[in-house]
From TrEMBL:
Any matching Pfam family: DnaJ
UniProt-recorded name of the protein: J domain-containing protein
PANTHER family xrefs: J DOMAIN-CONTAINING PROTEIN, PUTATIVE, EXPRESSED-RELATED
Occurrences of domain J (ranges): 11-80
Species assigned in the record: Acacia crassicarpa
Length: 149
């Protein structure tokens, strides 16, 4: 008789029965194994377990959809997966993956408030249609330097 699992408490790695260091091939194999095991059609003759099988099968599918996508897996491993909506915004996934990669590769650096403001303005100018327009925030730069750690 299968164990009852809380569908919202399970880690995607444990749902598939793999380690965090699993390769793409291992993830795919574990998915196939668990999808066959928990497919609702296999449990149709046992009404008591049919609902649990459906829930587990959905968990297996969700775990595979995240862990088989390198960007989503990176975000999941960083503990930020809850920030992604149901629409699977690939642009946001790419952005988060790039930010995580930068955080892992760059040495820690202290930024002044002016540095952070400059970085923000550069990002805003790069994404606006009016790249030549000056922001009202550029004129009001602080005179006191604050170290942000």
């Amino acid at each position: 008789m299968p164990d009852v699992v809380d569908p919202y408490a399970a880690c995607y790695y444990s749902v598939l029965g793999i380690s965090k260091q699993a390769t793409d091939c291992e993830i795919r194999g574990a998915y196939r194994k668990m999808a066959l095991k928990w497919h609702p059609d296999r449990w149709i003759n046992d009404p008591k377990l049919a609902m649990e099988a459906k829930t587990r099968f959905q968990q297996v599918q969700e775990a595979y959809s995240v862990l088989s996508n390198k960007g989503k897996r990176t975000i999941y491993d960083a503990g930020l997966f809850g920030l992604i909506g149901d629409d699977d915004d690939e642009g946001f996934v790419d952005f988060m993956q790039e930010m995580i990669l930068m955080a892992q590769t760059e040495s820690p650096k202290e930024y002044t408030l002016e540095d952070l403001e400059r970085l923000l303005m550069d990002m805003m100018e790069g994404h606006s249609n009016e790249g030549t327009a000056k922001s009202e925030f550029q004129a009001a730069s602080p005179t006191k330097k604050i170290r942000i750690k």
